Amino acid sequence: MAEQTAGTPSPTTLRRAHFFMRLSRAWDSRFESMARAGNIGRWYSAVGNEATTVGAALSLLPNDALSTVHRDLGAILTHYLDPTRLAPALFEPQDRTAWDALRPDPGALLHRLASQVLGRRDGFTRGVDRSFHYGLIDRATGLRHVGMISHLGAMIPVAAGLALANLQDGNQNVVVGFIGEGATSQGDFHEALNMAGVMKLPLILVVENNRYAFSTPLHEQFACEKLSDRAPGYGIAGETFDGTDFEAVHGAFERALARARTGEGATLLEAMLPRMRGHAEGDGSYELIAADERARWLTHDPLPRFEAWLTRIGAADAARIAAVQETATAIIEAAVARGLATPEPELHEAWRNPFAPGPVADAFARQHAEVTRG
Amino acid sequence: MAETTYLDAIRRALFEEMERDANVFVMGQDVAQFGGAFRVTKGLYERFGRLRVVNTPLCESGALGAALGAALVGKRPIVEMQFADFVSCGFNQIVNNIARTYYRWEQPVPFVLRLPFGGGAGAGPFHSQSPEAWFAHVPGLAVVAPSTPADALGMMKSAIRDDNPVVYLEHRFLYRREKESLGEGEQLTPLGKARVAREGRSITILSWSWTLHESLAAAEEVAREGISVEVIDLRTLVPLDEETVMASVKKCSKVLIVHEATATAGYGAELAARIADQAFEWLDGPVKRVTYADRSSPYNKHMEKALLPGREAIVAALRKLARY
Fold it and tell me: Is the overall model pTM greater than 0.95, yes or no?
């Protein structure tokens, strides 16, 4: 296990990290309130995961790939959006990266994301699939994001395949894949990490260990002390760290990325996270946790911790912190309002061809259309 | 000109397409230096190297999921299952992940799944199955099953070039038994198009892969009795070439469906339902099937043969149908 301290994050990194952590939290606040009011079907909160998800995605370069599951909104926002265009007042000219210049219009992308999560017409799937069940792969902008299917562990081999393509292309690009601790019990976890070890894939798998899979606690999920203990069994590196500590997250990713980019292979990271919410809002899984345990985890919120640290090292003052929070809230309020004003998907989308254009799609379209309607 | 076997035709397709497009690659167990369990990929490793002829550990789901990941970013993976029977270990990746990606978020998944399948070798319950119906049921998968070397070549090339997941069923019994002269140049068989393998007037046989050959032999035999049988090689099961199928059914007015897979909820049931729906008024008799018995494949060769839908069973069914 690598133990050396990575370099302190740059001021630019800290500004971006703070903004995206607050943006993710503002999004959760808005959707949690809609879920409580019964205005959306389901919401899977990412509260508590932000230091890990944002910290992970901040390290990515164009054509690095991101594979996400339920609680990785922070990574998606960080991966997609140019913050210097989205919130210009919060950033310095030097904060704008070369990749930011390539990234799509952040307002338009945020609108697609809000529409997707709200199930509206302008979403990435245009109504066909829910929330983070989609991907966005765009050669022109170097965005490579693959979302989840509900089977969860099934995405780990997919992340390995994204990494295999990098190996085949002989580039230094990497893949960061997220998974919950529950899915580490699935066979795909084993198959993918074994392949990653054998093939020395540039893959970083981040287990977001928030202590409960739906209602199942850790001791009913696995019997090893730490999930990163499994790494040596696959011949890959492994680290467990406090996923609410941005510095620890940053250090762990710097080490894992250095390995992946230099051909040393894969890393299994285990981010220990607080259980600050239930599986989905209002599904009863949160109430199952003892009240004193719930109260304890609520004191492990990564955001106040990060902001106290920013203050302590002189990277932000109270006014700056308030400005970031207010700006993030305003951006999300506007995006959700616009999403809610977006029409429902058009029904003909349900009938779209399941095949990509070509002879197969044409042959499918020629079939007797009324076969399912008598 | 030298004759090309069905197996060599598949290898030729892989070779030509890998030469043509650097994004095409092969992945599977023992596919590299060893050339795969049936030696279909023999020689590819020497030409294209370990990054394009990728040995995987023993992991069907892992390999299939990885193929999806690579396909999402522009690769065109071809995954070999050692035996089609083992694809069950990777089922979820195919039916939930690979098949559904394009409909969900419109990212094409160019992918070919090679399934060496079928019985006749006394190989027992886990090396003999015909699993096409498992995949025909899932929206988003093309399912093809060539019966001749020419189509094995031309359909593999078309499958590799298509932007969709294609389940390619290659029959183990045909690998070294079927041979024909193939020309030198580029040969593509379109996906989604059936082939009239034998013209006839009074009964249509719908079949594919190994049973297509049994059907042709049976048609030849009953021709001597004055029964004129048209044999359609479906080649592509999904999407079905309804135009060719219904034209033949309407011409002959009697239908026999022959497939090696078991009967219940087999692909023949789908064909029968579509024929009943679209050609009811033209039918002069019941739509009949000759299939594998609804059993696992016995290890003993004689027992297996008793359950296989071979020429004798087809001849008997044709005679019965002719009496209507």
Answer: yes
